[in-house]
Amino acid sequence: MIGSGWRTRLADARARRAALRGDLAGALEHFRRAAELDPDGMSRWTAATVSVDSKSEWQRALRLPGFEDLRASLACEAAEYFSLSEEEARAALEAPLPAEWAQDRYDAADVRELFARDRAFLFANLRVAATDKHLACRSLAADVFARAGAKRVLDYGSGVGNMAVYFSRRGIPEVACADVSKPILELGTWRFERRGLAKPESYVLGESSLPEASFDGISILDVFEVAPEVEAILDESRSALRAGGRLVLSVGSACASAERRWLVGRPSADVLAAAAVRFGGPLEIHRVRHRVVCVFAADGQVP
C-alpha cells in the first residue's frame, strides 16, 4: 500500500517548479532591461552544452584510485575519516537527516549553526556526490573557467569539497574553498590530501574575509537556496575576483518543504537582479533541468 506522504512530496515539487517559473520570469525581464537584450529573441538563453560526459567525468574525478563505484569510494572515505567500519559508513551515508532539520522555522543563523555542528550534514554533503542531478551545472562551470584561462578558482559554499576536487581534476592549477563550517572545510582538505592533490586554501565564511582581487573564477552553485545574504555574498565575490574574472552562479527555487525547511533563500529573481546590478548583464544564461546557470564578468562587460 502506498502511503499518503507521496501526495505531500508531489505538492512540494509542484510548488517549487511554479515558484521557479515565476522567479525566472521576473529575472529575465530584469536582464532584458539591464543589459538591453532582445526582448523577443533572448539570444543568450540556451540549453546547457558542456564539453564532457558530465556524469562519467564527475564520477571519475570524485572516485578514489582503485574504485569503479562512486558510492563505494565515498563509503571508504567516510570510514577512514570518521574511524568507522564500512558498514557503519554506508549506513551513515544513507541515513535521512535528523528530525531536527524539519523544525517549523529556520533563519540564516539556525542554518549556519546546524551546518557547523551536525555531523549528519557532513555525511549528506558526501552523499550528494553520488546523487547530484545537476552535474551539467558543474561541467558548465568548469568549461567557463577553462575558456577564460582561469588559473585560480574559488568554490563559494564548497561543502566537503566535491566541486573543488572536480575543478582540480579538470585541470585548474589552484583551487580554494569557502564555507560557513570549519569541520566541513577540514574534511574537504583531507579529501584533497587523500587523493594526493595540492592542499586548497580554505576560508571560513563569517570568520575570515576573502582576499581582494585574488581569483580568476568563482563558482556559487546551490548556495543561494540556503543563504539569504545575497547582496553581501555578491559584493564579497566581486571584490575577490581579478579583472577579467568570471562568476558562475546557479539558482533554482528556494521554496522550503516539509523535509527541507533549511531552504531559507530569497527568490531567484532577487538573486539574479542583484547580480546584474553588480556585474552588468550576464555573459551567458543556461537552462539546466529546473535550474538556471548565469555567467558574469568581473568588469561588468557585456559582449
What does this structure look like?
This protein is α/β, with parallel strands linked by helices. The chain has a domain at 47-56 and 134-297: Vaccinia Virus protein VP39 (Rossmann fold, 3-Layer(aba) Sandwich), CATH 3.40.50.150. The protein contains 11 helices and 8 strands. It has helices at 5-34, 54-62, 70-82, 86-94, 108-117, 119-131, 135-147, 162-169, 182-194, 230-240, 268-279; strands at residues 45-47, 152-156, 174-179, 201-204, 215-220, 241-251, 284-288, 291-297. It has an 8-stranded mixed beta sheet, with helices on both faces. A hairpin with a 2-residue loop joins strand 7 (284-288) and strand 8 (291-297). Helix 1 packs parallel to helix 11 (268-279), helix 3 runs antiparallel to helix 6 and helix 10 packs parallel to helix 11 (268-279). The radius of gyration is 19 Å and the shape is globular. The chain starts with a helix and ends in a 6-residue tail after the last strand.
Outline of this structure?
This protein has 303 residues and is an alpha/beta fold. It has helices at 5-34, 54-62, 70-82, 86-94, 108-117, 119-131, 135-147, 162-169, 182-194, 230-240, 268-279, and strands at 45-47, 152-156, 174-179, 201-204, 215-220, 241-251, 284-288, 291-297. It has an 8-stranded mixed beta sheet, sandwiched between helices.
Q: Kindly, what is the distance between the CA atoms of the first and last residues, rounded to a whole number of angstroms?
A: 57 Å
Give the helix tally.
11
CATH class of the domain at 47-56 and 134-297: Alpha Beta
The second-level CATH architecture of the domain at 47-56 and 134-297 is 3-Layer(aba) Sandwich
Strand content: 15-25%
Which fold does the CATH topology of the domain at 47-56 and 134-297 refer to?
A: Rossmann fold
Largest beta sheet: strand ordering:
1-7-8-6-5-2-3-4
Largest sheet: 8 strands, mixed
Rg over CA atoms = 19 Å
Summed over residues and divided by their number, the pLDDT gives a mean of 80
What is the overall silhouette? Answer: globular
Question: Which regions are unreliable across 5 or more consecutive residues at pLDDT < 50?
Answer: 34-43, 254-262
Secondary-structure element sequence? HEHHHHHHEHEHEEHEHEE
Structural class determined from secondary elements: alpha/beta
Helix content: 40-55%
CATH homologous superfamily classification of the domain at 47-56 and 134-297: Vaccinia Virus protein VP39
Q: How many β-strand stretches? A: 8
